[in-house]
Amino acid sequence: MCGIVGYIGHRDAYPIILNGLKRLEYRGYDSAGVALYDGTGIQMAKTKGKVADLEAKVNAEITPNGSLGIGHTRWATHGVPNDINSHPHYSNSGDLVIIHNGIIENYGSIKKELINRGYTFKSDTDTEVLVNLIEEIKKKEKVKLGKAVQIALNNVVGAYAIAVFDRNKPDEIVVAKLGSPLAIGIGENEFFVASDATPFIEFTNNAIYLEDEEMAIIRLKKGVKVRKIKDDSLVDPYIQELKLNIEQIEKGGYDHFMLKEIYEQPEVIKDTYRGRLLAKQGIIKMAGLEENMSKFVNANRIIIIACGTSWHAGLVAEYIFEEWARIPVEVEYASEFRYRNPIITDKDVVIAISQSGETADTLAAIKLAKQKGALVYGVCNVVGSTISRETHSGSYTHAGPEIGVASTKAFTTQITVLTMIALRLADVKGTMSKSDYMMHLRELEMIPDLVAAALKSEDKIKEIAKIFKDASNFLYLGRGYNFPVALEGALKLKEISYIHAEGYPAAEMKHGPIALIDEQMPVVVIAVNSNHYEKVVSNIEEIKARKGKIIAVVTEGDTVVKELADYVMEVPATPESLSPLVTTIPLQLLSYHIAVMLDKNVDQPRNLAKSVTVE
Ligand code: AGP
Fold first, then answer.
1. Measured distance CA(540)–CA(564) in Å, rounded
2. How would residue 179 be classed by pLDDT, with cut points 50, 70 and 90?
3. Backbone Cα Rg of the chain
4. Which ligand 1 atom is at minimum distance from the Cα of 308?
5. β-bridge mates for residue 31, sequence order
6. DSSP-assigned letter for residue 179
7. 3-state secondary structure of 132
8. Whose C-alpha lies nearest to ligand 1, atom 16?
9. Peptide bond preceding 328: is omega within 30 degrees of 0, i.e. cis?
10. Closest ligand 1 atom to Cα of 407
């Protein structure tokens, strides 16, 4: 997710854009740029790095004059972070400049067609393709910028929030939205466009939030005309009067980034499989995997290396890979792996999972695996991060920046990527019937709706949090696919509420931990419909017999566990192999609300950093 800002009005555009980008840096911060119309032409400066680096570059390279401009702070999806791939992007003629937040999935075919028509490209981005498609249509159809944008967007597939202007018509900006947010600030003879209202809230609290598949032509003298992209029909926009302050807007109206990111999961899981999972056609396409297919298919085993939550995602993947692709999997703490002398050969494939792509232990483990001849495949969230560059290949999770130190959307999007890899391998290896393969593709496509349904239990979960917030210890139990979820739930509680919690395989209770059970010990049990259901029910009965307090995660409509447990948190029925993507949701919310009620610093818990770049 990137941050976009635009201005057209009577003030100097640059200070407004620069300040706006600083406010949007939470949305993406690997490169930044600005384009200004200075009365005669366009001045542009852009750079890899943060907005502060852009400011230095502007001071060194251009004279930032003019009352029309656009700016961008990037979270790379296509093309690594560098100066050339930073936004804004010119069209070939230099007449148009564009900024874009989103992904154009079919940019490859459009780029080929434009190259055939003589266009050249400086960057690897989908955005530069889009601005030249708009230019080609504008020239060929002899239409105005707004019409050219409308036609172009009817030919692209993907998600976008764009702002584009023409140096030959410096009294207008054209914007459009599908899948990424775009707000228009309405001032006195001035207009603002941005990913959210933080860049303009100090100038006006009147805003139009474009709906999906809407565009707007913003003219200084004529105001804002909102149209439907599909048929160019006019829309009567609703002008909101905003009452949020800047901090609330950055967090999307949520109290903390962590809660915002918990609620982003339905959308970002879609972003993770966007353009990669084509369920109807029975296709999974992940370039990195395809390029290394023979290594994966002929691997003796897959070794997964990671830390913390990413290690838990690896444990889930172990169940999926072994059940579906029938490839032996070992999951290793990177911090341990790096100091052993592990037996690795070139017949092994190592998958390194890391949200930040900067975790020192994981990086060291990667280097060791490479030295020993294994193919090392990265599953990272930060494009161009050290781990993404150090691994031989990989797949990004496209979860957008995760600001909260406690990983939430990173976990579910990592599992989504790993599930797609396992499914593709099962299909190539023939270890899964075509009908099961097609079924699992459709099931995976349904997950965002099931996650959204699980989020609806938040109020109930808040009630449970209130009852147990003062407990000194928690136990988290799960079986099978949900054993790693029990570990993850315990980690979430520990790291943000500072309450001690342990995750265990439910069946392990009788080998010792059951001695811990008494009426002071809340036990969270993941007891959703699964092959282990009856066994989990008997584990619950064992705990009940020792007066343990039971908080169960159950499938909606469950009546058996509901009778036994003290409290239940319901999730929709989910196929067992995909259930971690859904059962983790109530555990994220439970830990979040307990931490808030204990007045902890949820987004920056004590002693923790978002990325552990030291040993
Ligand atoms: C999880 O909530 C923590 N933030 C932490 O365990 C994290 O998962 C771990 O440090 C690994 O980070 P990475 O995914 O960026 O490599």
1. 7
2. confident
3. 25
4. 6
5. 48, 74
6. B
7. helix
8. 354
9. no
10. 2
Distance (Å) from CA 353 to ligand 1 centroid: 10
Structure tokens at 400: 């957008």
The model's pTM is 0.80
Ligand 1, residues 304, 356, 492, 613: which to mutate, most atoms within 8 A of Cβ?
Answer: 356
Cα(363) to centroid(ligand 1), Å: 13
- Determine the residue of 407, 600, 610, 615 to mutate for testing ligand 1's pocket, defined as the one with the most ligand atoms within 8 A of the Cβ atom: 407
Contact 210, 175 (CB under 8 A): yes
Instruction: For the chain, give the mean pLDDT.
Output: 95
- For residue 220, how many other CB atoms are within 10 A of its CB? 17
Strand extents, DSSP E, 334-406: 348-354, 375-380, 393-396
Which of 464, 480, 449 is CA-nearest to residue 573? 449
Mean pLDDT value across residues 102-109: 92
d(Cα 565, Cα 158) in Å, to the nearest integer? Answer: 45
Do 602 and 404 meet the contact criterion of CB atoms below 8 Å apart?
Answer: yes
8 Å CB contact between 274 and 103: yes
The residue contributing the CA closest to ligand 1 atom 4 is 406
Number of Cβ within 10 Å of residue 600's Cβ equals 18
Protein residue with its CA nearest to atom 10 in ligand 1: 308
**pLDDT interval class at 353 (50, 70, 90):** very high
Tell me what pLDDT residue 28 has: 75
Give the pLDDT score at 268: 95
Residue whose pair of structure tokens reads 């913390």 in the numeric block: 308
Q: Which of 335, 612, 613, 614 is the best mutation target for the ligand 1 pocket, counting ligand atoms within 8 Å of the beta carbon and taking the most?
A: 612
Range with the poorest average pLDDT among 156-165, 552-561, 599-608: 599-608
Label residue 78 by pLDDT band (50, 70, 90).
low
Q: From ligand 1's centre to the CA of 420, what distance in Å?
A: 22
Which residue's CA lies nearest to atom 6 of ligand 1? 308
The predicted model gives 296-311 an average pLDDT of 97
Could you check whether the bond before residue 88 is cis, i.e. omega within 30 degrees of 0? yes
How close is the Cα of 309 to the center of ligand 1, in Å?
5
Of all protein residues, the one whose alpha carbon is nearest to atom 5 of ligand 1 is 308
Distance 393 CA to ligand 1 centre (A): 21
87 in Cβ contact with 76 (< 8 Å)? no
Question: pLDDT digit string (tens) for 424-474?
Answer: 999 999 999 999 999 999 999 999 999 999 999 999 999 999 999 999 999
- Tell me how far apart the terminal alpha carbons of the chain are, to the nearest angstrom: 30
310 CA → ligand 1 middle, Å: 6
Instruction: Compute the distance between CA of residue 193 and CA of residue 17 in angstroms, rounded to an integer.
Output: 10
- Binding-site residues, ligand 1, Cβ < 6 A: 307-310, 354-356, 359, 362, 405-407, 495, 611-612
* Residue at token pair 């401009």: 69
Q: Which residues are catalytic?
A: 2, 610
pLDDT above 70 for 33: yes
d(CA 572, CA 449): 10
* Closest-lying ligand 1 atom to the alpha carbon of residue 610: 4
Q: What number of residues does the chain have?
A: 615
Instruction: Label residue 611 by pLDDT band (50, 70, 90).
Output: confident
Helix ranges, 372-482 (H): 386-390, 409-429, 434-455, 458-468
